[in-house]
């Protein structure tokens, strides 16, 4: 019988996992490798761990992203600065007494099924503290909440001539603020959420900023009709019903027409390859304005380096570049888990409904928050952990392994086809 549950990480996902375990009458033990809660959302100017940059503001509103049983304070703005969101996590943890279940500066180095796993479902876990002291534990279930922003992907080696480039190259996980780029010529590579934010922010300090993209993006502001937050309008039963009833081509045409009437994406160098319903949406209030003012110049895909510059796909070259910031994403890695679970393409985890490895029987390990969504993540993680604990305690059951593998393969083909 599942009783003692390990929670790895005390970020947003870890906190709600602890809370839900307590609601279900289970005994949660959370190991957090740093000295405080908050995970990715705890800004640190000097740190070797991944954390956000100083100016980061949420892309989802407080009304949509809060936990179901703990509304955000009324005096909070609709979109939160990272310091306010961290304060919300502190309020949440204190209100429900979660801190006493967290052990700080403890890193999980090993989590393996016990020899009798097929009968007990238990896990052997090894941790190490800041002094290097190892400790062994046994848990009935494991909830992995360490996130997918763990290993930066920096494709520098893929570009010819990078060895001779004399400027600075860094990944966005190293970026804290624009002070280091004041008066310089900077290229930002990638137009995801970080790429858009960093390019706009750096362009206010740098002498010239370029944003290189291979796929473009549909740029949408945080404010929607009537001055309401975008997600409150875009994510609703009504809009979901319309998407199911109306032809996809019609929705794409109408949505893209509205955005292009505000600023022509092709004229601004932002025109994406994907239709709007197929992804490629960037929530950013500043990017088009910075392009319009000339502080930011759009460039095509990066192709290579010279000694002091960069070569782009359209044949143009920008010389005298001081720094290149790669906003090229992260790879989710879980070195403490068995390698046998990383059986997907490129060694990724294959997960049923983005939660359960189908090869584990009984299913007493679940991965939290390892997905991308068009809306807020926190409410979805809350639903994930409720489901996971029901499976842990046999209150509900998963499909047979063959069916789970079929679903995983189908979802992967749909994703790759986008």
TrEMBL record:
Its cofactor is FAD. GO terms for molecular function: flavin adenine dinucleotide binding; N,N-dimethylaniline monooxygenase activity; NADP binding; trimethylamine monooxygenase activity. It is a single-pass membrane protein. It catalyses: hypotaurine + NADPH + O2 + H(+) = taurine + NADP(+) + H2O; hypotaurine + NADH + O2 + H(+) = taurine + NAD(+) + H2O; N,N-dimethylaniline + NADPH + O2 + H(+) = N,N-dimethylaniline N-oxide + NADP(+) + H2O; trimethylamine + NADPH + O2 = trimethylamine N-oxide + NADP(+) + H2O. Its EC number is 1.-.-.-. It is an enzyme of class 1 (oxidoreductase). Keywords: Endoplasmic reticulum, FAD, Flavoprotein, Membrane, Monooxygenase, NADP, Oxidoreductase, Transmembrane, Transmembrane helix. Pfam families: FMO-like (PF00743). It is found in: Endoplasmic reticulum membrane. The keyword DNA damage does not apply. It comes from the Eukaryota. GO terms for cellular component: endoplasmic reticulum membrane. Broad spectrum monooxygenase that catalyzes the oxygenation of a wide variety of nitrogen- and sulfur-containing compounds including xenobiotics. Catalyzes the S-oxygenation of hypotaurine to produce taurine, an organic osmolyte involved in cell volume regulation as well as a variety of cytoprotective and developmental processes. Belongs to the FMO family. This is Flavin-containing monooxygenase. It comes from Gadus morhua (Atlantic cod).
